[in-house]
Specification:
Order of helices and strands: EHEHEHEHHEHEEHEHEHHHHH
CATH architecture of the largest domain: 3-Layer(aba) Sandwich
Number of domains: 2
Largest sheet: 6 strands, parallel
């Protein structure tokens, strides 16, 4: 089996790395990670830098917050690109700008390294249950090589197309998710003000055309006012910024996305950036 270096042990990265260990892969993590001990307890080994990790492993996976962090870890001093050799594979499962993915792909290609952009959807629950949707951009041969690893972390795994296509698809996903959360938040606020039982409303709507995973899971969060993060507002705002910039570069009007991004900005300004994105509901309360 491939030896894997995994960088980025956040809310989703940690369970993803643990699922790779459970599947029998030999996994390495960075000593600087706050969650390194939890992974070493599960059997992971430690490396001091992305460079040494890349030298020692066949595959490097990153799961980081944004483009600057990925660029720093991959292209910076003692970065992945300094240690990775021809014939190895780099997989970025972060959500970053498609243009950044394309740039990293080309730099890896210049070294004889295949690279895939493979952002995920499914939140913390999907990461913990290895049921993530994984949308992939890159070479079909590299995709087939990575597929067994993807299957240890997800269920719905699709090669979308050329490098950057995975990130573009993820941007579209975040647009749909963000606008649907806003729709659920507005509907539940209206129902609450009208004195409607929210549990019963959610139950009947889940049996109709309005049914969605967001109505199911985030509707429940709203009713219970449980905004412990599965996916933070500040990270979703970052994703919508990527979508808006991508839309602008393509000449696509995205007024609804801009409105939801504005609501998220207000939430962050009010100190709610660490809340789950379902906390958009709080922005509508009197």
């Amino acid at each position: 089996m491939e030896k894997i270096g995994f960088i980025g042990l956040g809310i989703m990265g940690k369970p993803m790395a643990l699922n790779l260990i459970k599947a029998g892969y030999e996994v390495s993590v960075l000593a600087s990670s706050k969650e390194a001990q939890a992974l070493t307890d599960a059997g992971a080994t430690i490396h001091e830098s992305p460079k040494t990790m890349a030298e020692a492993n066949d595959v490097i996976i990153t799961m980081l917050p944004d483009s600057p962090q990925v660029e720093d870890i991959v292209l910076g001093a003692n970065g992945v690109i300094e240690g990775i050799d021809a014939g190895k594979l780099y997989v970025d499962m972060s959500t970053i700008a498609p243009s950044t993915s394309k740039d990293i792909y080309q730099k890896m290609k210049d070294k004889g390294v295949e690279a895939l952009d493979a952002p995920v959807s499914g939140g913390q629950v999907g990461a913990e249950t290895a049921s993530l949707s994984i949308m992939v951009g890159g070479n079909p041969v590299a995709f087939e090589r990575a597929l067994p690893m993807f299957k240890a972390m997800g269920k719905n795994i699709v090669l979308i197309g050329e490098p950057g296509a995975g990130q573009t698809t993820k941007a579209c996903n975040q647009v749909i998710v963000g606008m649907t959360i806003q729709a659920v938040a507005e509907a539940f606020t209206m129902a609450k003000e009208a004195g409607v039982d929210l549990e019963k409303m959610r139950e009947v709507l889940l049996g109709g055309f309005a049914q969605s995973r967001i109505l199911d899971l985030h509707g429940k969060r709203i009713i219970e006012e449980n905004f412990k993060p599965g996916f933070k507002i500040k990270l979703h705002k970052k994703d919508l910024d990527i979508a808006l910039k991508t839309g602008e570069s393509l000449g696509v009007s995205m007024e609804g996305t801009a409105q939801v991004a504005s609501q998220m900005t207000k939430a962050i300004e009010q100190g709610k950036g660490e809340f789950d994105h379902s906390a958009l509901y709080l922005m509508l309360q009197k």
